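Might you be able to check the backbone structure tokens below? Thank you kindly.
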Amino acid sequence: MPAAGMIPQLARLLGRFAVFWGVWWLLTDGRADGLVFGAAFAAVAAAMPLVIVEPRGTDTPLALLPTVLRGLLLLPFFLWQSLYGGIDVAARAFKPRLPLTPTLFDYRLRLPPGPAPVMLASLVSLMPGTLAIVSGARLRVHVLDAGRDYQDELELLEAQVAWIFGVALQAPRTPAPTRWVRGPETDA
């Protein structure tokens, strides 16, 4: 790499290091005994973009600032869904008459492989009463109510995550979703 190209890359690396080390300093209340340890982790975190390979088929890397700004626009949607989910979980805890039938189901992902499906799983998992992991081309979701249809909500959230990352949704790459009423052992 020519020297002219290394200077901006070095500046970005030092900028990321300063941000991560500053966050560490804030989280540790500026304690001197943790600054060296924090500097090591800040250096590793700052170097990560240099070793992470971009997914194939992308012409240019995603710009971080527009992605973060679009992500902030998802905040009201996420807060509303969290409030709704929290009320639902609280109602189930205080009213034993409400059904509590935990189940697992697979949601066919339309997002391309990469960070977008991971963010989708993280957002689903942060909502009360749910837990999700990415498993190949599907999202495996645990919910508290087997009778409720979550398909529309997941499609809406997936579309918003696609918008945040600036990627197009693809046709699902897996067969129809599987639903387990009492867990994966009943689907054998």
User: Anything to note?
Assistant: Residues 75 and 81 are 10 Å apart (CA to CA).
